[in-house]
Design goal:
7 strands; Thiol Ester Dehydrase, Chain A; 7-stranded antiparallel β-sheet; about 140 residues
Length: about 140
């Protein structure tokens, strides 16, 4: 395992903290980084993210994957909001406090009303969870800000 990341090292690696309202703000703080092939999202796991067994709670992993895939779909669809209809999550390894979880995904297919997504959560390049999601597209593109 690499050394434990710090707020400074994450910033130096191009990650920017996202302070979000609502539920996404409760599970974070979340991080984002623009990469060559799209956006990546992250979370620095703390003691508050652990289950009674001492590893990051599966609900947190699922929430991070859900948020990330929705955000990636939102960008891919010219900022059209999407809501999750179905999310299948496969837990492959444990994550622990002090580790930085990275979420990446891709749009597999989009119709006029549905988006099919795939994604992975990793720690130091090792996949800890993978998932596929079906999202419902809502409304029109957001107005430019």
């Amino acid at each position: 395992m690499n050394t434990m990341p710090t707020l400074e090292s994450l910033g130096a690696d191009g990650w920017r903290q996202k302070l979000l309202p609502g539920f996404a703000g409760l599970i974070g703080p979340l991080w984002a980084r623009k990469e060559a092939d799209g956006w990546a999202y992250g979370l620095l796991a703390t003691e508050e993210h652990l289950n009674p067994a001492g590893v990051v709670h599966g609900g947190l992993l699922t929430a991070l994957l859900d948020h990330s895939l929705s955000a990636i779909a939102w960008e891919a669809l010219a900022r059209r909001a999407c809501v999750t209809v179905q999310l299948d999550t496969h837990f492959l390894a444990a994550a622990r406090a002090g580790q930085f979880l990275e979420a990446r995904g891709r749009m597999v297919r989009a119709t006029s009303s549905l988006v099919f997504m795939q994604g992975e959560l990793s720690v130091d390049g090792n996949i800890v969870a993978a998932g596929v999601a079906l999202l419902k597209v809502l409304g029109n593109a957001a107005a430019p800000s």
